[in-house]
Each structure stands twice: as C-alpha cells, then as structure tokens.
Amino acid sequence: MAVTAVSGPVARPTPRLRRMEDERWLAFALLVPTAVLLGLFIAYPFIEGVLLSLNSTRVGVKGDFVGLKNFDKIWNDSIFRTSVWNTFWYTGVTTVFKLALGLWLAMLLNRHFKGKALVRAFILLPFIIPTVLSTFAWKWMFDPTFSVINWTLFQLGFITQRINWLGDPDLAMTSIIIVNVWRGVPFFAISLLAGLQTISPELQEAAAIDGARPWQRFWHVTWPLLLPVTMVVVLFSVIQTFADFQLVYVMTGGGPANATHLFATYAYQLGIGTGLLSEGAAVSLAMFPFLFLIVVVQLLYIRRVETR
User: Fold this and answer.
1) Which listed residue, 92, 139, 145, 202, has the most CB atoms within 10 A of its CB?
2) Which domain holds residue 136?
C-alpha cells in the first residue's frame, strides 16, 4: 500500500511564542514580580529612611534638609554609644552560646533513639512560638515578686532575698541574652542537624577503624564538612540578632536607665517615643555600615571555606 505525503504550508511560531521559548525572556518574566516586591518593601523604605535621616522631620512637622547633622548628634549621644556596645555584646555572646548549644543538641538528635521524630518536633517549640508571647512568659518568670526562678533558687537555698532581674543593668542584659539563646538554639540545632545528615557515616566508620577517638573524628571529619553550613547559619543568626527588637522591647523596653538599648530599640524610642523621626532614622541607618561589614566578612569567609 503506497503512502502519499501531504504537503502544505508549515506554521511558523508567532513572535510571542518565540519570546516565550527564549530563556532570557522567561528569566525576565520570572524575576519581575520578585524585583517589584523587593523594590516596594525593601528598596523604597530604605531610600525613604535615608532621606528622612538627612532632614529635621518630627511628628507633625515637616523638616528641612540638615545633611549629616543627625548622625553627628547621635554620635555624641552617650545612650547611642551604649546601644552600639550593647548590640555587639548581645550579638556576640548569644551567637557563641547558640552555636555551642545548637551543635551539641544537633549531635544528640543525630543519634538513633525511640521517639526521635517527636523530640525533634518538640525542640522547635521555642522557635515556633510567637516572640512576643514567649517573651511575656519569660518576663513573668523574671519578675521580682512573682518570679518562679527566684522561688526555685530560694527553695534550693541559693538566695535569701529577691533578685530584681530586670531592674539591675547587668542582670537585665544577662536576662535578655538568656531568652535570646533559648529562642535561637532550635534554629541552630535543626539547621546543623540537616548538615550532619548529609555527612556519610562511612567516613566516621573509616576514621574509627583507623583508631581515631570520638573527639578526633568530630574535629577532623565532622567539623570540616559541617563548617560551610555552620557559617551560613551563623550569618543568618547574626543578621537577625543584630537587628533584634521585639524581645528587648517587651522584656525591658531598653531599661533600666537605657542600659539594655540596642540599635532597634533606641531608634524606636527616639523616632516613635519622642517624635524625633529623623534622629530615629539616623540611629536605624547607623547599624547598616556595621552590619554590612560583618556580612561581607562572613560571606568572604564562607566562600573561602567552600573553595577549599
């Protein structure tokens, strides 16, 4: 049976169809919504904050252009300098403890035991609970009159009188550090646990056969492979902790006597509390160079670790 070929005009793709098949147009179409959202919610507020910091605007009063006068004013402000020191101390101490406790917890959760899935889910509770809600609970526990911590220490014989945790400058800073560590450890633990599970058990077994002790296997096998993930987790934690606001504002409001102010809380007090919008914006932007430098250094270190 003979087959006859049917000839006819071949349909050519339309210009719109050709553009849809072009990867460059597809990439552009996918990036436009993201770029619009970033522009509306990040770029625009940032630009407005820069312009506001260069004026003398107050609540209900449209200010004039004053240049860097606001930055010079806050730099000579003793409370601002205290806020700078508090922010670095708060970020550094909490990051070290969250990393140490999170790594220890991740190592424990990486073992095989009954109810492992339930324990892993339970560990996430401090990170899942809304910050304001959990912070109010901690504020009650640190209350000098109704403090369950004071009651426990008194029953154990460690103290004989009430401790005003949030009324003493040093104890107040210690208190907010404890709460931040409690809230941040689950993030470190689960993230590092995910990194640990990507490491082949055969490497550990080979090191054990060669006679390496547990701490040697961790230091020479586990830690080098876990370091890239660790640096990324630390980077996100530093960014979040450096700009922390809710926890400190609910716990102490920056007190007592401005002793626990961070960049964010002092900016809020100046901009919203006293109505000095431009000075508050200047305090907010003052953290940007510090945070930018920290992020750049960490990113360079991460890149160096990954290319080893």
Assistant:
1) 139
2) 78-307
Half-sphere exposure of 133 (CA within 13 A, CB side): 6
Separation of alpha carbons 7 and 11, rounded Å: 12
Give which of 199, 176, 198, 195 is closest to 187, Cα–Cα: 195
Task: Measure Cα distances from 128 to 7, 121, 174, 183, 243 in Å.
Answer: 66, 10, 23, 9, 19
In the chain, the number of structural domains is 1
- The CATH number assigned to the domain holding 134 equals 1.10.3720.10
Domain for residue 242, yes or no?
Answer: yes
Decide if 131 contacts 110 (C-beta within 8 A). Answer: no
Could you tell me if residue 254 is inside a domain? yes
List, for residues 114-131, the tens digit of each pLDDT value.
877 888 888 888 888 888
Total-model pTM: 0.85
Peptide bond into 256 cis (omega under 30): yes
Angle at 277 between CA 87 and CA 77, to 5 degrees: 45
* The one-letter amino acid at 160: T
3-class state of residue 55 by DSSP:
strand
Residues 6 or more apart whose CB falls under 8 angstroms from that of 146 comprise 140
The Cα–Cα gap between 157 and 202 comes to 50
Residue 210 lies in a domain: yes
Among 227, 110, 250, residue whose Cα is nearest residue 180: 250
237-276 tens-digit pLDDT? 998 999 899 999 999 999 898 999 999 999 999 988 888 8
What would the 3-class secondary structure string for 108-175 be?
HHCCCCCCHHHHHHHHCHHHHCCHHHHHHHHHHHCCCCCCHHHHHHHHCCCCCCCCCCCCCHHHHHHH
